[in-house]
Prior knowledge:
With 644 residues, the protein is an alpha/beta fold. Helix content is 37%, strand content 17%. The chain starts with a strand and ends with a strand.
Amino acid sequence: HKDLTNGQGKEVVIRRGSQINYMDEFEWSGPLKVTMKSVFGIDNFRLCQEGVCNASMDGRDVVCVMPTGGGKSLTYQLPAIMSRGCTVVISPLLSLITDQILHLRQAGVEAVMLTGATPKEESKAIFSRLFASTRAIGSADGRGDKEIKLCYVTPEKIAKSKTFTSMLEKLATVGKLARIVIDEAHCVSQLGHDFRPDYKKLSILRQLFPHVPILALSATCPPKVLQDLLLTLRLKAVVDGNTADKTGTVYFTAPLYRKNLHYIQAMTDYILEHHAYDSGIIYCLSKKDTEAVAQGIMDASGNKVKAGVYHSDVTDAQKERLHVKWRSGEVQVVCATIAFGLGIDKSNVRFVLHHSMSKSLDGFYQESGRAGRDGNDADCVLYYRGQDASRLSALICGEIEGQDKLHQMLQFAQNLIDCRKIQFANYFSSSSSLALSSWSDTTAAGTLSRCGHCDNCTRSPDSITTRDVTLESWQILRVIERVSRHGGRVTVGMLADLVRGAGGGAFAGGTGGKRKGKAKATASSKEKVDLDLNDIAGGKIIMNKADVEVLIIQLLLSHHLKEEFHSTAYSINVYVTSGPQALRLTRLSRQQIQNGEGSRVSCTFLNKVATKRKAPSKSTSKTKHKPPAAVESEDEEEINIDVG
Length: 644
Ligand code: ADP
Ligand code: MG
């Protein structure tokens, strides 16, 4: 045992006995977190980031498999900044490298790249800086410049440039080659889906630099590929746990199924940032979701947030135990279906998150109302994107007034302008006996005043854009018309892909067959029909997927589109098709639409840039609302709307 303080005065114990747990605290833990915050503005590690950083700092060879968007870059950038000398990063794509360099330089980190496209002059300058640093003692490179902390290269630099590898050998000799990072490491294996011959040649790295740690990163690495990767890179076998055998490769993986990753990650970040020590509830749509979300949140937070599940299949004894643990704070978050609610006698619930929206505004209001019963401030957040509507639609199919109620919920979720309190008030005064006046503080004119603290009240004007989307609506309706004519069926998500000309759009054809393919409609399971977007709609829609989904939902709500239900042996599927209002647009030509004829459609979108949440302001309301944050990744984007 070795006792140390973590740099923040907190005493830590590091076991150097039979087992090392890289999720523990180490002597570098404090500085690591301070640097993470000051350089990258990040407060908490995600998934297995902390373990990877610790093992790297400890000089181990590491393989880390984390889903795309999980945050692999931080796992080497942070140790690179904290370590003596230069970290070499091998990455296959110039565009990825350029992005990273830009990002790092903005954060004030010395990062350079050497690729086939680097001009001679620039590469010479980099070489001489690296050379100078082999002679320098401190952190400067001996000429007053800052030392290069990260050097990105494409794999052929290692495979083909003797000058470069011999420079690395010089660095290694004086202990200034901190580590070698191989991004997209599955590319070394022919068994993977993305084999690159130049990656195969990375096998020389271990021979050239036997004492320099290697960090291999990937988002997809099935067991066979992993074995092949270890073999090719000449890494030792993966050691079980983190044993004291310091020569074995440490393996980290963060399994989170992709569909849910963004919501789970966003919810975890949100809890850690705003309610790290508070109790809360997360409402989920299904029993299965409660399990996945609870596990996901524990994984994503590195077990900092303890979550339990509650649904109708949980036994009474288990429910009782959960209640006890939740009351005592041992369980921080209950992931629940709507079965959880009655009988909640906990008054200090500080947040209620909706992983899925409710079937109606009544439900949403009630569930959200379980926060802040002690009268103190609490937060309610709904995570929403347009395509979420499909699952709900399928669920309420057949319920009396189910569809109307869901549409009102959707209307609320899509409304980025009106005060949430006023939206609730209007809804309840028209649907129940709750009078408008019971919502207090009406203005002199007798109308309700805005609450001043919901997401829509605190939104900065440049976080949303309202614009005329009649042409895009017309394009969507033209495409759906054509799909229907060929007996095809599309969901909200598929339609959003299809009108954007994105690949992967699948159609359930007229005979029930499913086909995958680029903008292809299926007339029957035998016949394929090319959907020529230029011909049908005068081109594709240039908007991101989340925005197109929002527009599709709006067209549903305005009856330009409608839902169509089809049941299979296992489930009810919900598709979208032309609605009663569709003809108002489709009877016009593209030219007419462009000339401003016909009834116009406008829609409000959340701007893509992530909005930093403002600190909550003091309020009299028992729910708290914050500006929304938009999250975006390559093909799955979603908006997250904070409401109360
Ligand atoms: P990957 O390479 O695994 O696909 P990236 O390293 O590009 O993912 O990170 C994805 C995004 O997540 C980046 O915008 C990054 O800034 C952000 N990110 C990484 N780690 C964290 C964290 N611990 N907390 C919040 N955001 C993070
Ligand atoms: Mg990456």
